[in-house]
Amino acid sequence: MPLHAINSEPSATSSEHRVVGWSPSFVAAVATTVPVLLLHAWYFRHTCDDAYISFRYARNLVDGLGLVYNPGERVMGYSNFLWVLLLAGLHALGLDLVLAARILGALFSGATLLLTVSFVRQWSTRAVTAWFPAVWLALNGTFALWTLGGLEGPLFAFLLLGAVVSASRLTSTSSPRAFAKLGLWLGLAALTRPEGVFYSVPICTWVLFRRFFTRKRSNPEEKVESRRLLAGVALALSIDAAFYLALSLWMFFYYGDPLPNTYYAKAHPLSPAILSRGMLFAWRFLRAYHFVPAGILFWWAVATRLSPRARGWLPSSVIGAFLVFFLVTGGDALVYHRMWFWTLPMFGLLAAEAAEATCGRRPVLAWTAGAAALALTFPNSIVGEDITYLRADDRFLADVAVLGRYLREETSPDTLIAANNIGVLGYESQRPILDMLGLTDRHIARAPGKPVATPGHESHDGGYVLQRDPDLVFLGMPRVLSRPATLRDKPGRLYPSDVDLIRDARFRARYALYNFELPGGRYAPVFLKKTLFP
């Protein structure tokens, strides 16, 4: 089938808008890949430490304390507003927050897979074309792990994909309602993650420029149609901007700043060091999947011959916008390449168009390329150093949960705890937490002298921590040991926040090593204020 036949501008009578419905091929693709995705996600069933920060905000909201981490301290230590509200809604209905996050993650990831298949089947001429992106998502470790990982990735990926699908159907003759629908998708994405608003630029730009490659040269109504298209895009952008501005105004009046505190805790001025770090994390993502994402881009470019009418320009522009954001912010260090989650459906759409074009000329090559991509994707999802790290992290979080529950039972409600890893510890202890990395502390997030190191772990101000006079201080990561720790034992990984304290004579004068004896004959070392020693 000629490439232009599947890439021309949609019209009211074209096969672009044929109703797929619950065709046998659609049902088969969904019925086989969604269970595989859910089983793959359950194989990980990992909830990351950072997710518990969002859980604590949601729980405090339901408990009537407001959208705060510590009661009485209005600091926006999360950057997933809509996700937190959805969690709070389910928690208000009586659901445990971890279970609520898993239910939402499974629903939105499943919906993303379903929308991908449905969209591809609306323009493809071969049922197998929709299978590749579905299987790609189901077998991808990043997509599977973060389906149940507790953070907003599944919701954000679904909304971005919805915006791409909505934009791909727009023409100069589309109704204002259709453009408003695009604005709604983009606006909800901006509520989910602040940078969601930036994706409106490549998406709306594509809608405008597509007109130049699909218009009829002798169309007498050219100017009228162009004005309609501009008006429609302006409507979509206005709705998107309204969502973003409404959230920013609310954040300003509620928290005193139109940006999340996490921005200040993680942001650096653009520099070669930041770009290098971003490129390093991007390289690690590509290497983990044996460069299959880059291979998909190459396959699509060759198969479509980079035709201006190719559909893949839209998802590839979203990938490009993500990559720019990823590089200028220095990347993300969370396990299994968390931020790449929302690009995976875009790679799936590129692969679908590449497979459609290749099958028309060389079906054997299309099957070979698809099978190779899937074969190289799946192994990293079940074995390797990432899995080893993940299992160790699961054990760490389980230990910290035990420690948190011990602190909730054995300390007074006003006990102030200073720590670096504040997710599970804060959620289970339900005690005031001084975040030494600044995610939930306004002062530390803005403190000068932040090095370029592990993203989100660079902010520090030891003097400020001592000024707050915490009762307990956990250096490094909280540990649970089989025997009491001594000063001779290595404290594990230290952050700049820990180095500040170790070098300060006031810390050594005020605090001493102490070991909490936990159930099961295990011990948790902590630096306890000397005036509180038993």
Give the end-to-end Cα distance, rounded to a whole number of Å. 80 Å
Quaternary organization: single chain
Number of helices: 23
Q: Which whole number gives the mean pLDDT?
A: 90
Low-confidence stretches: 1-17
Question: Could you say which structural class the secondary elements and strand pairing correspond to?
Answer: mainly alpha
Q: What is the 3D form?
A: globular
Q: How many structural domains are formed by the residues?
A: 2
How many E strands?
Answer: 5
Strand content: under 5%
Order of helices and strands: HHHHHHHHHHHHHHHHHHEHEHHEHHEE
Share of helical residues: 55-70%
Biggest sheet: strands, sense, closure? Answer: 5 strands, mixed
Identify the strand order in the major beta sheet. 2-1-3-5-4
Describe the structure.
The protein is mainly α and 534 residues long. It folds into two domains: 20-383, no CATH class; 389-532, no CATH class. The chain is built from 23 helices and five strands. It has helices spanning 3-7, 24-44, 51-62, 81-92, 97-123, 127-139, 141-147, 153-168, 176-192, 200-214, 222-255, 261-266, 272-288, 292-304, 313-328, 344-361, 363-377, 385-410, 423-429, 442-445, 462-468, 496-502, 505-510, and strands at 417-419, 433-435, 472-473, 511-518, 522-529. The chain has a five-stranded mixed β-sheet with strand order 2-1-3-5-4. It is globular. The chain starts with a helix and ends in a 5-residue tail after the last strand. Residues 1-17 have low confidence and may be disordered.
